[in-house]
Write a structure and sequence with these properties.
The chain is an alpha+beta fold and 153 residues long. It is built from seven helices and four strands. InterPro entries: NTF2-like_dom_sf.
């Protein structure tokens, strides 16, 4: 390198490639951010994740003794069934279960298979106060009006 090239002062033109690259990154990040704001979280989730979310909602409703959330996370056929509990029965059963066993804990949901608007999964769970009594429940989840809901059949 010659002595004159070393002494040359840097100008803003030397930074031009870096500024262009920075601009591209900012525009790309803004586009991704806007897409996340516009699209609801449920639409960004995979189908398997939506099924897991529906199962989690049903168990969380039981843990919270939240009858309205439980109804909302259950398929229409089950809600219309004569066997579906009314609010007082639901509250009594779940408070008693909580007092005797603690919260329901779901360490994992496995074996998710989706076929159209129906899915099956194995829910691995136990009670907080009885971690050594692990259980696995086969669970059916159906899509109704775009939302996944837990169903008995």
């Amino acid at each position: 390198m010659t002595e004159g090239a070393q002494d040359r002062e840097r100008s803003w033109k030397d930074a031009w490639p870096v500024l262009v690259a920075l601009g591209v990154v900012v525009v790309a990040a803004a586009g991704i951010g806007i897409s996340y704001l516009i699209r609801p979280a449920d639409e960004r989730m995979s189908t398997d994740a939506q099924v897991q979310h529906a199962i989690n909602d049903a168990y969380t409703a039981r843990n919270d003794v939240d009858y309205q959330k439980y109804r909302a996370s259950t398929c229409a056929a089950d809600v219309a069934s004569a066997a579906f509990p009314n609010e007082s029965t639901f509250v009594d059963q779940n408070r008693k279960s909580f007092d005797e066993n603690g919260h329901i804990v779901i360490p994992e949901i496995t074996g998710i298979t989706v076929s159209g608007d129906r899915a099956r999964a194995q829910v691995h769970w136990h009670f907080d106060d009885k971690p050594d009594q692990k259980q696995v429940t086969d669970t059916v989840v159906v899509r109704e009006d775009g939302d996944w809901k837990v169903c008995t059949s």
